[in-house]
Design a protein that fits this description.
Layout: E1 10-16, H1 23-32, E2 43-47, E3 53-59, E4 64-70, E5 88-90, H2 92-99
Parallel strand pairs: 1-2
Antiparallel strand pairs: 1-5, 2-3, 3-4
Length: 132
């Protein structure tokens, strides 16, 4: 299984892809269609039209890797049919489930949104003196 000790983003190309494509052609799709850098360390997922094959493109710090999987039974989720914008953004857990052939249904975040502190109202201002 594809693993990483750091947090990475997973972007799924939301159109059927010719699985004859390899490093250079998949990198070009990432750059031109997903508007991302293939050397960023993020993972990029591609699925064939018949949804039997999938590839993941990954820069591991020393070179590009292409991981491929062919399902013997069943088919991968049609990423181009998921609601939302393209590219589809997945978590590593969703990618692992996807590559096992699990259908991606009812996607919702499992963790609360990151807390972003808001500035305090009136912070930095001196107290106003009451009018006499």
């Amino acid at each position: 299984m594809i693993g990483s000790t750091r947090q990475v983003a997973v972007y799924a190309y939301a159109e059927p892809t010719d699985m004859r494509k390899s490093f250079d052609a998949l990198s070009a799709l990432v750059t031109q269609r997903l508007d991302r850098d293939p050397l960023s360390g993020d993972l990029f997922l591609f699925v064939s039209r018949n949804r039997k094959r999938a590839k993941v493109l990954l820069w591991d710090g020393t070179g590009l890797c292409v991981y491929a999987k062919r399902l013997e039974d069943g088919s991968f989720t049609a990423l181009w049919e998921l609601p939302g914008e393209a590219p589809v953004r997945l978590t590593m857990s969703e990618l692992q489930l996807f590559l096992e052939g699990t259908e991606l249904l009812g996607r919702f975040p499992l963790s609360p949104a990151t807390y972003v502190p808001a500035p305090l109202l009136g912070a930095g201002r001196g107290r106003r003196r009451a009018a006499r």
